[in-house]
Amino acid sequence: MKHWQIDQLPWDSFDPSKVDPELVKAVKAASVVERNSVDYAVYLNNVFHDDPDFQQAADHWAVEEIQHGDALGRWAMLADPQWDYQDAFQRYRDFYKIQLDVDQSIRGSRTGELIARCMVETGTSSFYTALADATDEPVLKALCKQIAADEFRHFKLFYDHMHRYLKREKISTLQRARIALGRVTESEDDELASAYHTTNEPADMPYDHNRCIANYMARAMKTYQPKHLKRVTGMIFKTIGLTPHSKLQDLAFYIAEKLFFSRQKKFARMVGLG
Ligand SMILES: [Fe+2]
Ligand SMILES: [Fe+2]
């Protein structure tokens, strides 16, 4: 069962004067990636083909992710009435495809798959929390709070299943760290870059990965404050199996904060927002 419904959001309170047009571009890209989770549910059902409990959880998870896309898309159409969410989603679907016909995880193990899912939910929960804090537009703020709450629940869902498989597959802390950090760096791969391209750039403009990822990241990363990154490092530590709230986490946070904000500035300069 969904924890909230799109029609319950305060749509009548939409205030165009509080819309940041740069954030609208990031929201458009995020909306189609969220909706595309239906493909990941197919992929997860294949990877966990003999685990009906997890398959059911994955199907339920996908329903919530689709709702995130639909709600963000509806907001983006209020902010930019020229833009069409369904058309943009179709363009994204035609442009970006993930391999679905698998019988095992591309991460090498089911534990690895669930670690990767935990990292995705770490990213989304922090992004929507940061976006809710960054925007003064009341509908987007309310929407992002609801989405962030779902994403934290998704993290817990995948984390609990990850522990179930960890007992069988016995993956070392080092391997867990490698998979987790590998998935974090994948955020700069084609998924978000092509989402930016298909939701913000004209159809006759050639795709350029570096330009598109810089455009997306410059805007999305700008919403983050140090407190959001602190939570991210805590969730990564938890997923890897290291003690959160430790001296090591303080050090990881210190390094992550420096890297994150210098990267945001680099992306912003690349696209003329710096
Ligand atoms: Fe989501
Ligand atoms: Fe999620």
From TrEMBL:
Keyword Oxidoreductase among record annotations: yes
Family to which the UniProt record says this protein belongs: Belongs to the fatty acid desaturase type 2 family.
Cofactor: Fe(2+)
One of the record's GO molecular function terms: metal ion binding
Transmembrane annotation, as ranges: none
Lineage top rank: taxon: Bacteria
Origin species: Acetobacter indonesiensis
Protein name from the UniProt record: Rubrerythrin family protein
One example of a Gene Ontology biological process annotation: fatty acid biosynthetic process
Keywords from the named record: Fatty acid biosynthesis, Fatty acid metabolism, Iron, Lipid biosynthesis, Lipid metabolism, Metal-binding, Oxidoreductase
